[in-house]
Amino acid sequence: MFCPKCGAENPEVAKFCKNCGKKLKSDTKGGGNRKRVLIGTIVGVIGFLLVLGIIVALTAPPSEDTNTSNPEINETATALSIYEPDGEVVESGILKINGFSEPNANVTINGEPITLNPDGSFTYEIPVQAPMEIIIRAKAPGKEESILNITIEELTSSSITWTIDCKGAAGILKP
Fold this sequence. Notes:
Elements: H1 28-59, E1 79-83, H2 88-92, E2 94-101, E3 106-109, E4 112-114, E5 121-127, E6 132-139, E7 146-155, E8 160-167, E9 169-173
Parallel strand pairs: 1-9
Antiparallel strand pairs: 1-2, 2-5, 3-4, 3-6, 6-7, 7-8
């Protein structure tokens, strides 16, 4: 490195000229590049971790605690869940109940026995009107009964209003 004031040659790592004492400008390409590379690497890693976190959150299975009406699930009760009903009931006047319980459970809807698939899932269609109550019960051998009580409060050509009460190990899942 050469001194800009007197032209004397100095070692590359020198901070001051050995001839006249002038402060020498360091080679910003070397040190600056290292800083830029380090910052770029840190930003790249943070970006990668952020994208990875979003992917994991979007592809993770639903949480086991999806019961919004009964967060205190009774572990000794029979499992019973239905998927939140969609808006088609307003147009058709038929409520399609999709749910599942334990494969060996006895499930009834308004007292009518429901046949479960081998995996414990079931589908049931029921005409609805307001006011109306739909009671879904599940009882497996050696376990307590779980109950979902759906109360249809109002049904118009454009909307339905209902409340759902869950007891035992019963819950509502978002589709």
